[in-house]
Design brief:
Elements lengths: L1 H13 L10 H12 L3 H5 L9 E5 L5 E6 L2
Antiparallel strand pairs: 1-2
């Protein structure tokens, strides 16, 4: 399941399409852990507010340039 989700996102991003993922906090923590290379301890300290979009800006290699909350 994770591979299918990631590949679907990668295909769309490479086509210069925006991707929105809406999920439960724990699912988002898993994705953020993967994207930011966080340890288990770091990810458990994440506070993810409800209904506040978290944006990732990626380079052409799909590496994180920056991430931030959308105001």
């Amino acid at each position: 399941m994770q591979v299918i989700l990631l590949m679907t996102c990668v295909i769309r991003i490479r086509k210069n399409q925006k991707v929105v993922i809406c999920a439960h906090g724990n699912s988002l923590r898993a994705l953020i852990k993967y994207m930011d290379n966080l340890t288990d301890e770091e990810v458990t300290k994440l506070e993810i507010p409800t209904a506040t979009p978290w944006v990732y800006e990626l380079d052409e290699g799909l590496n994180t340039i920056k991430h931030y909350y959308l105001d």
